[in-house]
Amino acid sequence: MARKSQKKETLVKLDLACGDNKREGFQGVDVHKTPAVDIVADLFKPKWPIKSNSVDEVHCSHFIEHHPDLCLFWSELYRIMKPGGTATIIAPYGKNNRAWQDPTHCRAIVEESFFYLDKNFRKMNKLDHYLADVDFEFTVVYVGIDPMWQNRSEEARNFAIKHHWNVVADLQATLKKR
C-alpha cells in the first residue's frame, strides 16, 4: 500500500508595517527594505504583493492610525487572509493624548471603529455600501490601563474608560476572517 507523502503546511504569519521591530516567527512587511523586512510593500496602496487567501495570522501594531484610507487597508487585509485567519491590530486609544499628539496620525481609533468590519452590523445599519466584501468577527481589549484605575471595581474602571482621558493607552483588536 502506497503512503501519501505528508507535506507539513507552513503557517504564513505577517507583521505588517513592522519597521525594524519584526515580531518573532513572522515575516516582516514594510515600505523600506531593512534587515527586519522580508516583503517590501507600500501598505497605503492596493494591491499588496501578497497572494489572496494565503495568510494565517497578521500582527499590526501602531500603524492603522497613520493610514489615510482605512477602507483600503481593511479590504486588503481581508483579501490576503485565509478564512478563519486572525489579525491582531494595536493602536493608541482615541481617548488618550497619544492618539492625537503625533502629527502623522490621520485618525483616532476607538472600540466602535471596528464595528464596520462586521457585515451583519453594516447590513443592519444600512451601510452595505461600505467594505462590501469584508466580514470579520472581532474582540477589543484595553491595553495599558493607568495604574490608578487597575485595582478599582470593574464598574468604576469602565466608567473611567468611557468618560475620562488617558485611562487606557492602547486598544488591541483581534479580528477573525469569516
Describe this structure in words.
The protein is α/β, with parallel strands linked by helices. It has a single domain (13-177), classed as Vaccinia Virus protein VP39 (Rossmann fold). Helices cover 20% and strands 28% of the residues. It contains 5 helices and 7 strands. It has helices at residues 70-80, 97-101, 119-124, 147-150, 154-163; strands at 13-16, 27-30, 39-40, 55-61, 81-92, 136-145, 168-177. It has a 7-stranded mixed sheet with strand order 3-2-1-4-5-7-6. The longest helix has 11 residues, at 70-80. It is globular. The N and C termini lie far apart (39 Å). The model has no long low-confidence stretch (mean pLDDT 95).
Strand order of the main beta sheet, please? 3-2-1-4-5-7-6
Relative strand content:
25-35%
Low-confidence region ranges: none
The name of the CATH superfamily reads: Vaccinia Virus protein VP39
In short:
Helices cover 20% and strands 28% of the residues.
Q: Topology of this protein?
A:
Layout: E1 13-16, E2 27-30, E3 39-40, E4 55-61, H1 70-80, E5 81-92, H2 97-101, H3 119-124, E6 136-145, H4 147-150, H5 154-163, E7 168-177
Parallel strand pairs: 1-2, 1-4, 2-3, 4-5
Antiparallel strand pairs: 5-7, 6-7
Output the keywords.
178 residues; alpha/beta; Rossmann fold; 7-stranded mixed β-sheet; 5 helices; 7 strands; globular
